[in-house]
Amino acid sequence: MRATIECHPMSDKRPAGGPSLLFPHMSLALAEAEAAAARAEVPVGAVVVSATGQVIARAGNEVEARQDPTAHAELLALQRAARQRGTKWLSDATLYVTLEPCALCAAAISQFRLLRLVYGAYDPKGGAVDHGPRWFSQPTCLHRPEVISGVREQEGALLLRRFFHDRRAESGGHARLHSLEAGGQTEYPEERGPPSPKTGQETPTVYDTTNIFARLLRGEIPCKRVHETAHALAFHDIAPQAPVHVLVIPKGAYVSSQDFAASASAEEIAGFWRTVAETAALLGVVEPGYRLVSNHGRDALQSVPHYHVHILAGAAMGARLVP
Length: 323
Ligand SMILES: [Zn+2]
What we know:
This protein is of the alpha+beta class. The protein has helices at about 20, 25-40, 65, 75-85, 105-110, 155-170, 210-215, 255-265, 265-285; strands at about 45-50, 55-60, 95-100, 115-120, 145-150, 225-230, 230-235, 245-250, 290-295, 310-315. It is built from 9 helices and 10 strands. The model is unreliable at about 1-20 and about 175-200 (pLDDT under 50). Zinc ion binds next to helix 5.
C-alpha cells in the first residue's frame, strides 16, 4: 500500500497539483479495474467521457469471462460508447484507462477518432503509446489523439502488481501465468530473480505491503523523523551504525534501487534525491561530509524490501565500503 496515492507527473505534459482532482474520471477507471480483479480478470479499467464530462461508457477487462484475448477494457468501453451514441466516431470524447493501451487498443483509439487519451500506469512490455510501436507516432496512423500519460499511475500499477503477486502465490510462486497475459498486457512487476545460492531467498521484486517501511509510512509504527517531503521520508535508523545514521525512503511502493529507477516517475526520483540532500543539510553534515549507501539484492544484503538510502555521518568514514 502506498502511503501517498497522489499521481506523480512523469512529464511536464501534465498540470501540477492534485491530479486526482484534475482527472476525477480516473477514479471510475480504477474502480472498473478493481472490479475486474474481483472477477479474476487482469485489473485494467476504462471510462469514455463526453466533452461535457458525462460518462458515456465504462468497462473492465473481460478476457477471461469471454475467453476473448481482445476483450480489453478500453476497446470494450469505446465500442459501448459508440453503440450508446449511435455513431462510429467519438471525436469529442476522452478515454480514461488505468494502463497504457496495447497496439490493438491504440489502433482502435485512432479508428474511433478519439479526442483525448488519458492513461495511468506505463507498460514498457505491452504498451504501444509511449513504448513499443508508439502507434500515434507512426506515419500510417491517421488520427492522433491528445495523450496525457501517467495519471495516478501508481494506483493503476499497484492493482496489477497485487493481482499478479496474489496469482503467483496461488500458483506456487514460480509459474508464469500465460492465461493472464491478456493480449500483450504484461505482468507487474518483472519476473522474480533466481533463487539465492546463499540463503535460498529470491531477490525481492514483489512489493510486500507489510514490510516495516510500508508500515512506517502508513503511521502504524513510529519513527524519529528528520525530514518529510511529498516524495520521501527521512528518519533515524533504530540501530545506528555511525554517529549519524538516517534512512531516506521514497513514499512510493518500490522494492529496490532497480525498481525505483525503472518504475518511479521523474518527479518522484528528483523529489527523492532532493529530500536526501535536504536531509543532509538539516542534519548539518554537508560540510564535514557524509556517505550514502544503498544495498540492492542478495549479495548486498538488502534487508528491507522497500527502497532506501542510508545517510552515514558524524565521524570519519574511512575508505571502507561497508558501514
Ligand atoms: Zn489493449
